[in-house]
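Sorry, any thoughts here?
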Amino acid sequence: RTTHFPKILIWSLAMFGTNAVLTPYMALRYNTPIPPVKEETNKGILARVFGWTGMIVGIIALVWGVMGRPEFGDLVERMNYFGEQLMTNRLTLAFCVDLLLFSLFQALLLGAVNTRIGWFRFIPFWGLALWLIL
C-alpha cells in the first residue's frame, strides 16, 4: 500500500528474522489509504532474489534438520527430542508459536493480494518463496 517503507529491510527481517517484525508493519499499514486497483504487473528482480534465497535457505534447513549430524540419531529420535524440547523449553515453544503466527500472517497478507495462484499462501514459508518467484 505504501512505498515509504524500506522493502529490503522489512522483507529480510520478516523472511529470515522473526514474526515480531510483521505485527508493527501491519499496524503501520493498517491506516494507509488503499491505492486504486491496477493490473498485476510482473514482480521485479528483488522479489525473485528474495524468493530464490528463501527457497534455498528453507530447503537447506529442512535437509539439515532431517539428515545433518547423523550422530544425533534418525528421524524418530530427532522428533522425540523435538517433542521433549517443546514440552520443557519455553524458547522452543515460543519459536513454534512464532512459526504458527508467520503462517497465519502469510495467509492473510498474500490473500490480500490479487493473484491467480492463491493457494501458495497456505504453504508456510515455501509458499511465500514460490509466490515471490512466480
User: Anything to note?
Assistant: The CA atoms of residues 47 and 55 lie 12 Å apart.
